[in-house]
Request: fold
Amino acid sequence: MARLRLTARGRAAFGVLAMLVIAAAAAPLPAQDADTTQADDDTTGADDAERDSAAFVGQAAAAVVSSYAVPDMPAAAFLGTTPAAIARPASTRDFLIGLASGVDEHGQARQGFALEASPSAIVPGFGVSLERYRAPGVNPRYLLANLLVSFGAARAAGDSSPTVIAYGVRATLFDRGDPMRDTAFLTALGDSIARCRPRAPIPGIPRADRPTALDPLLRDLLSERHDRAVRCMDSHTRKLARRYARAHWNASTLFIAYAGGERLRGGSFSQRRHAGDRVWATGAIRVGGIAQTLLYADWTHDRGNSAPDAFDALTYGSRVNVGSESANGFVEFLGQTRSGVPLGVPATATAWSAGLELRAAESLWLSAGLGERFRTTAAPNVVAVLAGIRWGIALRPWLSPGE
Amino acid sequence: MIPHVGPIDPAVPVRIVVSCDSGHALAFALWHRPAGTDEWKKFAEGRTGDGAESHAATIETGPHSQIYYWVAVSSPARPHAAYHARLTLTQRDAPVPHGSVELRGTTDAAGNDSVEQWLDFV
Reply:
C-alpha cells in the first residue's frame, strides 16, 4: 500500500504549506459570524435569532457526527448514557440471567442496567469458526459474528421522570479493514499470542488419584498466571493491531445500527409508551492509497413526553481525509434537518470544517483547523499562536481517522 | 472442581481437538502427566496461522493420568467480545465421556483472554 512518508525537509514544507492554507482560509473569517461557520452570503438578511439558531444546529450536527462511526452500543447511545458497567454474557444461561438482572424484585426496570450480547456467542449452533468468518463473498456467518444486540435502562433527570428502556442492534455489513480476515495478520497474531505461552504447568497440582478440589493457593496461582499471560498478549497484539490500523486507515467499510426505546411510567412495564427510534449508517470509501471519503447519516425520531415535544431529526455528514500515519488533513460538510422547530428557527442548517495535522515527533502532534469540528472536538494540550494562526499541540492525534 | 474425563480405554490413544467457534485466533499448549508420576511433558502446541488444517493432538494415556492445557484467544478487532473455545476428546472417533470441555468468557479491552487448567482421566 502506498504510504506518505515525510522527511524532515518534507515536514518543514508541510508546515509552511499548512500555514499558508490556513492563513488563506482564515482571511475571510473576520467577515463571518464568530459563532457560525455559515458565510455571510448565506445569512445576509436573517435576524440574529435565526443566525444563532442556525449556528446551534450546525454545532449540534458537529457534536452528533463526532467520529463517523455507528455507536458501539446503540441502546446506550439512544439513552444518552455511558454505562458504568456492561454485562456481556458468553452463554445462553448468562444472557438470560443478565436480562433478568434488569428487573428488580418489584418487577420494575432497574436503573443503570446495560447488557450487550452477540447472538453468535449465546445461541447454540450460531458459532462461527475463523475459517467461516474469513470465507470470501457474501458471507452470512460474517454478518452473524459481528451482530451485536444491546439493552439498557436509565431515568432522565428529576424524581418524577419516567424510566426509559432501550434496545438496539449493530451490524457490520462489510469491513475491508478487518484484520481477522487477513492471512498475514492472522499468522502474525498467532505468533504473538503463542509467545505468551507458559513454559510449564503451575507447580503443586495434585495427582489424579488424590482429592481434586481446587485449593485457594492453586486458584491464586492460576489467576496470577492468567493475568500475566493476558498482559503479555495485550502488549504484543496492541502493537500489531495499531500497525495494521495505520496501514489500513482508509479501508472501505459499511456499518448500520438501530435503537428504540420505551418510556415506563413509574418504571412499570405495564405502563409503557414508545419513546422513539434512532438509526445510524456510516460508510467509508477508500480513494487510492492516501485518501478516504466518509459518509454518515443519523435519523432520530423522538416522541417526547407529549405530542408537542415530538420531533424528527436527520443529521448527515461527509468528510474527505487525506494523509498517512504522520500527516493528514480533512475537509468536511455537516448538516442537520429537524422537524417540529419553533417558528422563526431554521429547520435546516449546515456547517463545514477543515484541518491539518502533522506528527512533529513521537507522541507530539501539531494541528490547525477551522470550523465546527475544530471548535467542538479539538482539545490540544497546548495552544500556540504562530504567524497569527492558532496551532494546537497535543500528545495524541485527534484529526487522524484511524485513532 | 477439576473435570474428570472418561472412563477411557488405556489401549487406545486419546485424540484432543482444540477449536474456537467465535471467530478468534487461538494458541494452545498441552502437557501430559502419566499416572503415579510428578513430571509434566508437553506433547502438543499450536496456533492460528501455523499451517495446520485442524489443531489436534494424540496421546497414549490411561486412567489417573492428567492433561494440562493453556488456550489463548485473540481478536484485536473485537474488544470485550464473548468467546467460545472447546477441547474435544475422542477415542476411536467416539466422544470420550465428559470429554467436551467448554471454554467460555469475554475478552479484555485489547480483545484477548487465556485459560489454563487441568483435567483428570478416570
Summary: The longest strand of chain B covers residues 94-106. Chain B touches chain A through 59 residues (CB under 8 Å). Chain B has no helices and nine strands. Residues 4-121 of chain B form a domain with the Lipoxygenase-1 fold (CATH 2.60.60).
